[in-house]
Amino acid sequence: TLEEELRHRASHDSLTGLANRELLQERVELALSAPSREQGIVAMCFCDLDNFKTINDSLGHPIGDAMLVVVARQLVEAVRPGDLVARLSGDEFAILLEGLEDPAAATAIAERIVTVLREPIVVEGREIALSVSVGVAVARQDTTTEGLLSEADSAMYAAKAAGRDRFEAFRESMLARTVERLEITNSFKGALARGEFFLEYQPQYALADGRLEGFEALLRWQHPRLGLLEPARFIAIAEETGQIIPIGRWVIQEACMQAKLWSQLRGYPLNISVNLSKRQIEDPRLVEDARSSIASAGIGQDQLVLEVTESALSRDPERAGHVLSALNAMGLRLAIDDFGLSYSSLTYLRQFPISLLKIDKSFIDPLTDPDAEGGAFISTIVSLARNLGLQTVAEGVEHDIQRAELHRLGCDSAMGYLMSPPLRSHLATPIVLHAGSEFASRK
């Protein structure tokens, strides 16, 4: 009847046909009532697709909607017949689990959801890779409807922070992280104008003669209430909210101006390296922003080195290729950061106009043990880079034995706490004025 149809529409999502938030809340309240508790454990899975916004923006909303319909069907098939699957908004879904024998049953379902959505889906003849982050919360005797949703949501964000494409079970410590996350999100507005962000600089030296080659600029945030924030506490949130775009633009501008000042003091051009996030690579203004920053500072194009991670390149390799080619055509140099952590590295060396390989610290650490196989890995990377005409930079050098072995193996440059930790600009300036003698004497 018409009345039944209107009632169904009021309680279900129009796109996927799943339950909506209102129906989910009603069912959770019922499940948490005393009589229902006798039927077993109640739990919630909160699911958020990884990188869906990027896919939606690049392929178009019709494709995105079609993807959500497919995902909805996969979620229903991944859970038990009586479980309620709801679409909350956008690419967020929640699943109410009732009558569980133990909490492990909830995590088993979450693991199955992650596995199922890891498989590529086909939409309008196009194969699209997806993944999902899932948070799991198990109701206690005093758990409320909003409390269960909030705890599952907190666990989902923990899964995002831990690398995505995974599930996390709720822990009490996650609540503090959720509160902090909300505060950080709200604090982005006006933080640049208030001067809360600043850069630290870590020097990079040539291994052959100890010559100072330049610095890597590292972002920090002096939050008015939370204190000094390391990037791990706010970069992922800046990425998800899009705030990384204006912040990253400021970093490039600031770093280029500092490179100009230090180059004048040193008497020869010093390089400045800046990390690019995934969202920045997708920003249509990136190329022009880089061009403008170089021009305003008055430095050479080849003094600016933009570093990208393999994960940033894998998100949309075709788009990344166009952007990196445009940057390379301007004369900028491009580096793969944390090189060696993924087998895809070799593919990227052929596909993108890379100039430098920054060897991850995990490959440098074993060099302190003469009997370890670390030297063989470094030798292979250095040989590969040399054959391709690329420069190699070792990250995380902390011991002189590492520096000596890297030099022996033919690595070009190094940076790390052996030479200097990251420093504020006024503390790094003495390095610019006096660099070389102490490091070179260690050869």
How would you explain this protein's 3D organization?
By secondary structure, the protein is α/β, with parallel strands linked by helices. It is built from 20 helices and 17 strands. The strands form three sheets. Strands 8-9-11-12-13-14-15-16 form an eight-stranded mixed beta barrel, surrounded by five helices. A five-stranded mixed beta sheet has the order 2-3-1-6-7, with helices on both faces. Strand 4 and strand 5 form a beta hairpin. The mean pLDDT is 88.
Q: What's the overall average pLDDT, rounded?
A: 88
Strand runs, count: 17
- Give the end-to-end Cα distance, rounded to a whole number of Å: 86 Å
Q: How would you sum up the global shape? A: elongated
Runs in which pLDDT lies below 50 for 5 or more consecutive residues are: none
Q: Tell me the helix content.
A: 40-55%
Q: Please, how many helices? A: 20
Largest sheet: 8 strands, mixed, barrel
- The order of strands across the largest sheet is 8-9-11-12-13-14-15-16
Keyphrases for this structure?
443 residues; 20 helices; 8-stranded mixed beta barrel; 5-stranded mixed β-sheet; alpha/beta
Q: What is shown here, in short?
A:
This protein has 443 residues and is an alpha/beta fold. It is 49% helix and 21% strand.
